[in-house]
Write a structure and sequence with these properties.
It is a single chain. The protein is α+β, with helices and mostly antiparallel strands. Helices cover 38% and strands 23% of the residues. The protein is built from six helices and ten strands; from the N terminus they run βββββααββββαααβα. A four-stranded antiparallel β-sheet has the order 6-7-3-10, sandwiched between helices. Strands 1-2 form a two-stranded antiparallel sheet. Strands 4-5 form a two-stranded antiparallel ribbon. It is globular, with a radius of gyration of 18 Å.
């Protein structure tokens, strides 16, 4: 992830050999195909959701119901994309608290909370690689095998289901059966520190105000 002109953007669209079912805070960006503005309009720095935008909001709000250990932290729906932060927790994790008061994000998180979660996820990912003997394969076979397994991991499954449901609804409302409405992939960042968590959360919340820029 890169802080570019004070905007937090997902820089890559996968982390090599990371277990996307592992404990961590994930920052995700999903964009419509050809940046079609399905989800509404920005009016006076506020997002006004369309019917499809409201459906997307419903699907995002339903994410925690899919799995018991996944939290929907923060999200914003924009005319042609959305950003969200998902947290896959474990038994030792206490959900962070960051209060947004319209100006600054007030950090009330223990300084190491997000970093500790990331380190646990890193250990899980290394164990995943070891248990599946990926380290014993050639690099080409390792990548091929990992990509097959990644499809069944938590984050790809959740994002895949959400994209499918929203695309289906878009096609029903627009009478465009079978049309592809999302970019093929999405972008993600695994959040490593509390500082990054605070800054990304602020960026998500303030996104509508920066739309014209």
């Amino acid at each position: 992830m890169k802080n570019y002109q004070n905007k937090y953007r997902s820089q890559t669209n996968r982390w090599a050999f990371w277990d996307y079912s592992a404990s961590a805070a994930y920052y995700l960006t999903v964009v419509t195909k050809n940046k079609q503005m399905f989800f509404g309009k920005i009016i006076e720095n506020e997002m006004q959701l369309s019917e499809i935008g409201l459906f997307l909001k419903q699907q995002l709000d339903n994410i925690p119901a899919m799995l018991g250990n996944i939290m929907l932290d923060t999200y914003v729906i924009m005319p042609d994309h959305f950003h969200c932060m998902l947290i896959i927790s474990d038994d030792d994790f206490v959900q962070p608290m960051a209060n947004y008061n319209g100006g600054d994000v007030v950090d009330t998180i223990h300084v190491d909370t997000i970093h500790e979660l990331y380190l646990r996820g890193l250990r899980q990912s290394k164990l995943f690689t070891k248990n599946h003997h990926l380290h014993e394969l050639s690099i080409d076979d390792r990548i091929k095998q990992y990509k097959k397994m990644r499809r069944k991991m938590t984050i790809p499954l959740v994002m895949g289901k959400l994209k499918m449901q929203v695309s289906k609804q878009i096609n029903i409302l627009n009478n465009t059966p079978g049309k592809t409405n999302w970019q093929h992939d999405y972008y993600d960042t695994i959040i490593r520190t509390t500082k990054d968590y605070i800054n990304i959360r602020k960026y998500i919340v303030e996104n509508p105000k920066k739309w014209k820029r």
